[in-house]
Design brief:
With 166 residues, the chain is an all-alpha fold. 81% of the residues lie in helices and 0% in strands. Helix 1 packs parallel to helix 3, helix 3 runs antiparallel to helix 4 and helix 5 runs antiparallel to helix 6.
Length: 166
């Protein structure tokens, strides 16, 4: 709403720090393989992390993060994002499944939170109903990519996952 200010809560700031940590982990991923392929992998992980962060910023502007259910969802998503961040340097290797599962949980909690917010704000509910299939499909494809062995099927699934997520 234009003209309405919203003070950022300590919980939201801490949540942002978890995302900052996740973004710094992308540099570890890219430094491990300083090639064009390593750069592409890093950009893929950076892209999904960035869009997840943007989604939670939208939550912060739509609801009170200190509210009971919102606080619980943010804490759960924060934990999932922390595990996603820890897995990010090996998202295309040994921790691909962990990255995929935790990122899916981050996205699922995002959709669930917006469904709750959408009950009292129909415009938010309608927007989430349109976005949810893509968000969940994209993160699901990332999860499946984490299960696959290295090769073109994993690369293709990651590419489709990023495109669908965005």
């Amino acid at each position: 709403v234009v003209g309405v200010s919203h003070a950022v809560t300590p919980l939201e700031l801490f949540f942002d720090l978890v995302f900052v940590f996740a973004l710094t982990q992308v540099t570890t991923l890219m430094a491990a393989e300083p090639t064009w392929l390593g750069l592409l992998r890093g950009m893929a992980v950076l892209t999904v992390l960035w869009w997840a962060w943007v989604a939670y910023v939208w939550i912060g502007t739509t609801t009170d993060a200190e509210d009971g259910l919102a606080r619980f969802v943010l804490l759960a998503a924060m934990g999932a994002m922390f595990l996603t961040a820890l897995a990010a340097p090996a998202a295309f290797g040994e921790y691909g499944v962990l990255f995929g599962v935790t990122y899916f949980v981050v996205r699922l909690l995002h959709v669930l939170m917006f469904r709750v917010v959408g009950r009292s704000k129909p415009e938010v509910g309608r927007a989430v109903a349109k976005l949810a299939p893509g968000l969940l499909l994209g993160s699901s494809l990332g999860l499946v990519a984490g299960v696959l062995e290295a090769g073109w099927p994993r690369a293709l699934l990651w590419t489709v996952a990023v495109v669908v997520d965005v």
